[in-house]
Amino acid sequence: MAGDQQLSLLLDSAVRFPLPNGLRFSYGTSGFRSDGSVLASTVHRSGIVAALRSLKTRSTAGLVITASHNPVCDNGVKIADPDGSMMDQSWEPFANAIANAPDPNSLAQLVLQFAKDEKIPLGGAQSAEVLLARDTRPTGEALLEAAKQGISSIIGAVAIDMGVLTTPELHWMVRNWNKGTRATESDYFAQISKSFRSLMELAPNENLNLNAVEKKLIVDGANGVGGAKLEEIKKNIIGLEIDVRNTGKEGEGLLNEGCGADFVQKEKFAPSGFCSDDLGIRCASLDGDADRLVFFRLIPNTNNKIELVDGDKILSLFAIFIQEQLSLLEELPARLGVIQTAYANGAATDYLRNLGLEVIFTPTGVKYLHEKALEYDIGLYFEANGHGTVLFSKEFLSQLELVNSELTSKMPGSEKQRAASRLVAVTQLINQAVGDALSGLFLVEAILHNKGWSFQKWCDLYQDLPSRQLKVKVADRTAIETADAETRVVKPSALQELIDTETAKYTHGRCFVRPSGTEDVVRIYAEAATQDSADSLANSVAQHVNSILGSDIKA
Ligand code: G16
Question: Which residues does the UniProt record annotate as the domain Alpha-D-phosphohexomutase alpha/beta/alpha (predicted)?
Fold first, then answer.
């Protein structure tokens, strides 16, 4: 009876969201992405997956509608697991299967069969709960409605619309709801401003050279959702003067167009809205849904070229700071792991290894880095593009709390006690669910303040090897398969031989190619001793990709 009711509910709902003719969807690096106008069926079906995920885990799940760094016409959908991380990868084949089910009947059969196989109780007394959010894209509102209808096509499932949020806010909320607090956006803002204030107050006086640490920060909001959120947070921030640009207001420009972290990191140019008046000032850039962060400073007399501080250098700053605090606390042993991808600059990896840190590589995609970081007491992960965070294990957190409260009662004000309190503030400031540009930005600022470091000092940590990234649009990007954390092409095999031959021509040459999981392109990364060599290596490999797989090269 309940089975019949469930079946007819699924059929009635699915019939309103037919699969567009001739299209296939794939759960990629960060969920489904495509042109926003063709995604209604995919988002509707993702709503079903999220509701099933909630039933399976007996917890609140999340669903966010965003295409992050992609252009404004695109959109996408990703699902958050109860701990706030990306959906368990073992469910991706099911998500792919139902996203491509040709008609309502086959869709319903797939859902019922999957529920049976996974022992998910359908139609029973158990309820499911899914938190929803979207970014500012024009197609977002209609897609949100599709998600709601997908969720309510599972008996007992409830969708809770949390509004227009950054992706990391939604992940953070899901995590907190499952820890028993029905946290809202104002709790998120309050947690950031409170822990930032604590960390600022713990700065050692002798390190504090206020002349070195410029108090002003200009932030590029990518004309996305992050700028407006930052405007709210900054109302409660003391000790930092933040000027937010590209907030998406009328006249400021289009989402991610000529602005945003992806543009800044790849083009190494200042975003629109920045000019020579900003010379000498520390600047930061978020991406469209505020899950990526890079810093930069304009270079004088260069027509808006910038000195870039990417995810690798943010990672290095976090690693140094955490290591320093731990070195004062011998009673708090911790295994640190640093996770990077093949895009990490070779100089950054050498620098981190020279700090004595264990550095591990995974394929591109936060879901892979996050999973690896969970294996450590403290797992620090960052992609060079600015996507990353720091994770603390449960055991480490309870040890830290214990040590902190003992030191606070026995040695208040001592360097040891302050080191423990600084670590506590870091654990509260940095988002434990996913990479978060806003919480990352405030952690960077608090660390620079604690260390009394200028932007220049941070830049000088190490010198990046010159690099170049290109993308090539090909007929079928899935024709490329890679191995060894995407550093080698295994298919077509002739391509890797050509890459090896080209790379061998350059001092410190390194090059890899991989299919993007968010755009319909193949990406090329090259590194070498000089910028000309890196450019020429990237170009020649792009030509090979082009001649083997077809089409045009884009910077
Ligand atoms: C997403 C992922 C990132 C990944 C990026 C580019 O970022 O979350 O982990 O680095 O896509 O991926 P690809 O090279 O496969 O296109 P975002 O900011 O778009 O969500």
Answer: 56-90, 125-178
- For ligand 1, is residue 30 a contact (CB within 6 Å)? yes
Residue 525 domain-assigned (yes or no) = yes
What total number of domains does the chain contain?
A: 4
Please indicate, yes or no, whether residues 367 and 418 belong to a single structural domain of this protein.
Answer: yes
- Residue 367 CA: nearest ligand 1 atom is 9
Please give the distance, rounded to the nearest whole angstrom, from the Cα atom of residue 291 to the centre of ligand 1: 10
Identify which of 26, 385, 434, 472 to mutate to test ligand 1's pocket (most ligand atoms within 8 A of the CB).
385
Same domain, yes or no, for 300 and 382?
no
Q: What region, left, alpha or beta, does residue 269 occupy, with left being phi > 0 and alpha being psi -120 to 50 degrees?
A: beta
In this prediction the pTM is 0.95
pLDDT in tens, 445-463: 999 999 999 999 999 999 9
Interval 136-156: pLDDT, tens:
999 999 999 999 999 999 999
Both 58 and 7 in one domain: the answer is yes
Contact 66, 76 (CB under 8 A): yes
Which CATH number covers residue 481?
A: 3.30.310.50
Return the best residue to mutate from 72, 312, 364 for the ligand 1 pocket (most ligand atoms within 8 A of CB): 364
At residue 198, the 3 state secondary structure works out as helix
State whether 515 and 532 are in the same domain.
Answer: yes
Residue 289 in marked binding region: yes
Residues in the chain: 555
For residue 515, say whether it is annotated as part of any ligand binding site: yes
Give catalytic status of residue 26 as yes or no. Answer: no
Q: Which domain does 277 fall in, by range?
A: 199-309
DSSP count for the chain of H helices, then E strands: 18, 20
Of the candidates 183, 212, 231, which is a domain's last residue? 183
Q: Does residue 436 have its Cβ closer than 6 Å to ligand 1?
A: no
